[in-house]
Amino acid sequence: MTSRKPRVVLGVSAGIAAYKVCELLRRLTESGHDVRVVPTRDALRFVGEPTWAALSGNPVATEVWENVDEVPHVRLGQEADLVFVAPATANTLAKAAHGLADDLLTNTLLTARCPVVFAPAMHTEMWEHPATQANVATLRARGALVLEPASGRLTGKDTGKGRLPDPAELFEAARRVLARQETLAASGRPAEPGVSAEDEDGRFAGEGARAASGSGRWLDLAGRHVVISAGGTREPIDPVRFIGNRSSGLQGYALARTAIARGARVTLVAANVALPDPAGADVVPVGSAEEMRKAVIEASGAADAVVMAAAVADFRPADYRGSKIKKAPGAEPEPIHLIKNADILAELGQRRRPGQVIVGFAAETDDVLANGRDKLVRKGADLLVVNEVGADLTFGRPDNAAVILAAKGEPVEVPRGAKEALADVVWDLVSQRLE
Questions:
Q1: Count of Cβ atoms closer than 10 Å to residue 326 Cβ
Q2: Which Gene Ontology terms cover its molecular function (predicted)?
């Protein structure tokens, strides 16, 4: 790998969410990326050229007629390591899907041979319109990563799906895509996105996309739906107290971000997590183990893979007290009788449909591998990620170490490193089994 800064073309189309992209640009430049901002002509009505130039440190152009001697309509796409369009309006998605090239951004999209990411933002009705959905399917089938928009407050009083994800999470998406390219380049595998097929209705033809893009390509999970659980469940004792654990959800969220960067549609079932939603994930918040069970079982019915990274309570109080348990003077507290919660991972193993890959996590404090091998067999999982846990290990930390046990195949030891690195190894193994 060379020491040059990664080159990012940041395309900005004409949506009110353009002001949020200034924060994405700041994060990219401050983390060492060389960013060229390419706004559409109308995007400058929302954020002016001086702002983009000042934040990026590079000149800004919208038309192919500017600096013609440098042939920018070809060079920008050819030399980029990543093209990231945010916000991507319905108009820009339509132009990109149909190969129109009437400004510098759309020309750049046609010449790019690097990963291309679109972060759509528009009103719900525009996002849900069949024309927009067909355009999104076309772009995905051609090897582009189109993130799902977030739900929330839109322009004016409207709310719904169509909101631009948080800029910090857009930055994480860009970072994960670039990291994926670096990993593929280091391994000697091709990293260019492939061109893949659509079905007769223009929908994403996942099988055709996977076959065309190749197992070594960056979107190896394209067309796949994966369900991930994260965080730690809480079992209420009374309106104030609960039985819980130390899980922060960081590993589950790393799995979600990494899967999205590899093209998957992600449903993230999150229990008591204080983390921003990953850009592009469908997040289902839950509290207790039973709530998590219902959400995971419902979401996993048609999923290609399920990864149970959450720390699910094994037990819950047999009786919930409707009012706060008082401390009586001079009296010992009444014992809390516990009963078992359902074993979600084992149930998934029993319910699995043909071809579905099931991954579990096992947090152990002693006899780590022996206990892990026993759980792998009992739970009926394809893979089991075994962690040694403790007060200063794994929970709440940005790093992790694990051994991944397989029902078929040799164990894989993952040395301590960023949780995203462990997530990538998990998805490598899942991808192999899906293929």
A1: 10
A2: FMN binding; metal ion binding; phosphopantothenate--cysteine ligase activity; phosphopantothenoylcysteine decarboxylase activity
| Per-residue pLDDT tens digits for 154-180 | 887 888 899 999 999 999 999 999 999
How many other β-carbons are positioned within 10 Å of the β-carbon of residue 375? 19
Tell whether residue 314 is among the known ligand binding residues.
yes
Query: 202's torsion region: left (phi>0), alpha (psi -120 to 50) or beta?
Result: left
- pLDDT category of residue 206 using cuts at 50, 70 and 90: very low
Provide the pairing of β-strand 82-88 with 412-418.
unpaired
- What is the C-alpha separation between 180 and 427, in angstroms, rounded? 12
- Structural domain including 306 reads 224-325+335-434
361 marked ligand binding residue: yes
Catalytic residue among 135, 245, 341, 400: 245
379 is in an annotated binding site: yes
> Active-site residue 400, yes or no?
no
How far is residue 247's CA from residue 254's CA, in Å, rounded to a whole number?
13
Average pLDDT over residues 273-283: 95
Q: Exposed, middle or buried by CB within 10 Å (0-12, 13-18, 19+), for 173?
A: buried
Examine the domain organization and report whether 104 and 160 are in the same domain: yes
Is 158 annotated to bind a ligand? Reply is no
Residues 294 and 368 in one domain: yes
Compute the distance between CA of residue 201 and CA of residue 105 in angstroms, rounded to an integer: 28
| pTM over cut 0.85 | yes
pLDDT in tens, 418-432: 999 999 999 999 999
**375 labelled ligand-binding:** yes
Domain count of the fold of the chain: 2
